[in-house]
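User: Batch of two.

Assistant: Item 1 of 2:
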Amino acid sequence: MIKKLLTIATVVLAVAVNAQNGKVSQNTFSEVMPVTISNEKATLAPGCQTLSPINSTANVTLYTLNTSTACTTGGYLIGNNCYGYKEEAQYLDGSSYAAVTGPSITAVSVGFYRNATLLKGTKGTTGTVGMQIYSGVSAATAPGVAITSTTATLSQIIAAQTGTSTLFVYTFTFTPFALPATGFYASLVLPTTVGDTAVAYTQTSTVNGAWNKDNTNAWFDIFADWGVKVNNVFLPIVCGSNITTGISKNLGLSKDVTIMPNPSSGLVNLAVTLAQTENLTVTVSNALGQQIISNKYDGISNELITLDLNNQSNGVYFVTVSNGKDKMVQRLILSK
């Protein structure tokens, strides 16, 4: 037992030192700067909300592993790599859904990375990817008991990608399952078929909520293991009988739509992660209030919508997303 503990401690220490020596490289993808408009009256109705561990003002980030003598084939911090990681988990605190009556997990949307041109990131067709829900008590404590799970094939996940953006959203759905009051972990179960990979984005944070399960089935805090504090782009959808709809900082469309990159050089992506299919109207207005784009999208649930602002001048714009009941407005900076 002592030898085993010493071996684990040595491995963790070596990984931490290597990380400081440049073993982990960071590629910044985008920045989000939301402005929420709350002048509409909220109503109480059964429904769902999207929980988010992501700080909306932080960068969406992709961490890759530099090759070294210990990890000759590289890979990704949150995804398949030569260390044989099996799962990547994200903690969601019970306080984020404490006001929900009878909270149940129904889905988890994941921000995946794929670069088809370079054949990098999420790829393959034969393997499966899972989403496992574990009990949890805090971000400082490893995932607990497995409580429910679901799977999807890589071909299903890749088919969710639209356009040419390297970030796309896929939503894993569950039969509704009651959540513990203390909190839970959403964990991405990585494919094991040779050549198949699944890679997810993260955001840097002041508090680490991400954990990984290594090839010995042991859980490690990402910060303790690698020296970086991150939260994974995993967005659980929780349903209850008293969820407030309308415009709110924590509920409604403000949690279901993410704009990236922001600032933008011309092309803007809206990552939409809705609990159910809806019809959306997306408009873009300049600082003078003049509407320059107005598009309608029918039957939207989990999509990546691309807006082209290449013909517009640099400056401040406002993106409005409405479903006829809720409205969200986010400030966008155009800098070419």
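Item 2 of 2:
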Amino acid sequence: MLVVAALTAACGPGGAAQGGGGSHGPAPEGRRAAAPLPSSAQSAATVARPTPQEISLDERSVLLDVVVTPRPDGLRVVSWWGCVETGCRGRRAIATVATSDDGLTTASYEPWSRRRWQAYAGARDAVPSVPALDGLLQQPVRSMAPGGAEGTQVVVAGGDGATLLPFEVAARTTDHGGSWETYDVDLGGEVLAYQSGAVGLADGRLLVLLDHFSDETLARPADRWHGLWASDGGDWSTYAPHRAEFEPPLGPAPGGWSPVVALDARQDVAWVRTWDSRLYVSRDDAATFRQVRAR
């Protein structure tokens, strides 16, 4: 009986120890009862979604694509930024930057959507009909030659390269597609090159980004130039490394791969993207490239 009485006094009438967090009885004086944990929906509501500007400026975001358009007072840069690291994966935004030669720079930011990006980037160029290239994968190339696409059209082609386009044949027309000149690319030996962009320069050369070759593995590149190559004048079958001047200088890419990962052009402006999400533009036929703001 003494034991039962002692337990009853300690636990109270409900059988739970008083002050021990049971569901009955008030909390001891001077202590607050623990608040219930918020639900997952309540927790999510308290975390503000990052703005497009915050996504673009996040150091974890990478430059996925860009379009540069010349303007009378400078350049218009529209860039697509995306975060792919854990903690921000899937966040995408568009940054529109207007620059001028006098240093004035403004920027605006908006959420990314496929329709919005296509409105900025424009429709993909149609692949011209080149009978000599039937059966090959073909890619239209923007030309910086006088008259642009209306007079001069350029196509590069190759066999099935899965995710990379082999650089095996180049073709051009200067009479609106009435006749085509085709060139079998010869880089020496049996090695096949893969390209990640090409531009027809105003002086008649073909500039191409060769960043992978068939005798390489993903772990280690071969001991050769990875980056921009230019044709020997108007002979689009022969190429040599094109060592343009970059300001500031390009940083080396990890593993010895090309620091340049994309090449494109609009009108008289050529540009490249780099592995570390920098943008360089050229307005002197790819002789020199200078870095410009992309966000």
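The CA atoms of residues 137 and 228 lie 21 Å apart.
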